[in-house]
Amino acid sequence: MSYQSIKDIPNIGFGLWKISNEVCADVVYEAVKQGYRHFDAASDYGNEKEVGIGLKRAMDEGLCNREDLWVTSKLWNTYHHPSHVPMALQRTLEDLQLEYLDLYLIHFPIALEFIDFEERYPSEWFFEPEASNPAMKLAKIPLADTWHAMEELKVNKKVKHIGICNYSTGLLNDLMNYCQIPPELLQIESHPYLSQENLIRLAKQHGLEVTAYSPLGSLSYVELEMAEQSESILDQNVVKEIAKRLNCSPVQVVLRWGTQRGTSVLAKSISAERMAENLASNNFELSPKDMMAISNLNRNRRFNDPGDFCEGAFNTFHPIYD
User: What domains are defined for the chain?
Assistant: First the structure.
């Protein structure tokens, strides 16, 4: 298969955040084996080399061709200067052992001071981790400059599509006013507790596709102490009742809510059984009544908020959402 349009993005992707280096290559290989073709990577995840090993093994063994895969990665905050954008992409391509990306995204609308690859890669959030009081060091780089460098990547055919992550409605409207090549996809946190209806509607109005990360809500954040176990969407009675009636799992119900509302979703598991279960969420339909009941769970609960975690983890208060 060859993906000609951004609309061809597979609606269930395999998220690579927090998959340890030790198991990542095998997990990626197993995901391909289970039927995943959409993989969501990032330099900041620190495992792109292992992702590349897993994908290469799958291709070498004939499980898929490069054209069958949709591979996304992201530009990290320390590489926002236009001169650093192409080199950041090149490092990602080398680590993934690929000649091109299907999609390259600006990871956060946050520009940090450049850190050389030789000094630290991935560079993460701290400017000087060994300092007595380490903090983030912001860089005065307009998002417009970074975006124009992203446009150049597409012109030079190193990436098929370009887009953005974690943008607000204001930033998206502003971007549409200065872009020469418009963004093609917006990736945001979205789940029944954070439905983001207005942002998704605006993105679609501007012609962007939308991918939802953390589609199950709190599950990715409990171990990071960014959420409480009691905040699980899967424990909601409405979700459990729908799952029982449709003879599926609560996880499948929530993933199907995400895809049925017109977003692609990023699921993750290191278990082959769970991988298959997540993909099988495409095998049924939710009624309009079920969709509305799940949407009504919205409480505008954001788990991945720099306004919270940057201050607690990186000694720097830097909100990007109002």
Answer: 10-314 (3.20.20.100)
The pTM of the full predicted model, rounded to 2 decimals, is: 0.97
Local structure of residue 44 (DSSP, 8 states): G
213 is catalytic: no
pLDDT digits 0-9 by tens, 51-105: 999 999 999 999 999 999 999 999 999 999 999 999 999 999 999 999 999 999 9
Q: What is the pLDDT of residues 249-286, one digit of tens each?
A: 999 999 999 999 999 999 999 999 999 999 999 999 99
Instruction: Tell me which of 3, 29, 45, 104 is the catalytic residue.
Output: 45
Is-cis flag, bond preceding 122, omega within 30? yes
Q: What is the dihedral of CA 280, 286, 290, 291, to 10 degrees?
A: 90
Q: How far apart are CA 67 and CA 65, in angstroms?
A: 5
Kindly report the number of other CB atoms within 10 A of residue 20's CB atom. Answer: 11
Furthest-apart CA pair in the chain: how many Å? 56
